[in-house]
Structure formats: structure tokens, C-alpha cells
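Table S4 entry, GFA family protein.
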Amino acid sequence: MSDSFKAVGGCRCDTNPVRYEYTARPAEVHYCLCTDCTDICGGAMAIIAVVDKQSFRITENADKLRTFHSKSTCHRHFCSACGCHLYVHVDSFADFELVHVPTLDRDQDVGGKPDRWVFVRSKHPLLTLPEDGLPRHQGWANSGEPVAA
Ligand SMILES: [Zn+2]
Ligand SMILES: [Zn+2]
């Protein structure tokens, strides 16, 4: 879709923040409970927008970005000054960047709503999932049947 969609976000630096944008609606937005997301973010879940790589770009202060390989196939991009985790590239989703939705500016239209939970098998025991009726997948949504957790 090539409407005039655009969403912008960035890191938490007060001066010279890393800024990014994507200019097409995400292919998908999901809640991720994998330990790779949660342990690195220090949260019980991640909200991920799966954004076409062609529509995503860093618009300011790219020099502050650092990449950590939390797995050999999982490349996570952080601001080196404030520590904010902005987006992740996963080898199996080569054509996409996985944007951490809370790093979008709060007034932004994300471009989609979460429509599934993934990696439910890794859910932290202190987290109770809401009865939202969304499909819950043990791993990636395309790697198994939904489970009624
Ligand atoms: Zn920063
Ligand atoms: Zn994850």
C-alpha cells in the first residue's frame, strides 16, 4: 500500500536522539513473549511492528546506534547513549525490521493493532495474559498451531 502513511519514533536522548520512520503500514503487529525480547528489554512482553525493510529508515543520529547480536540470527539495535532498544532484525524475516512499538512517539498511528501473541511458551510466570480473544502461538505465528493457553 502506498498511501501517505508515516510513523516516527526515536530513542530517549534529550539531545540528538536517534530518530526513525517507516512509511508503509506494518505487515503485522504482535505481542512477543520470547525470552530474547523480554530479558533484553526488562519487560514481560514486547509489542512488535513487522515493518517492510524498504519503508524503514533512520532519519537522525544513526551514528549513535549500536548492534548487539542476542542470537547469531537476531540483531538488536540500541542507542549507545541512552540504551533504548529501538528495533531488531531477525535473519528469518530478512525483508523486515521488527520495530519495538513503544519507541514510536506516543501520538503516532502505529499502522495496525496487535492481532496475535507469539512465543507463549516463553511467557514469564508473573504475567497473566488478558482474555482478549487473540490467537496465541507457541512460537512464531507461522510455526505452529494456536494454543488456547
Ligand atoms: Zn538515545
Ligand atoms: Zn521476541
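The helical segments are 35-41.
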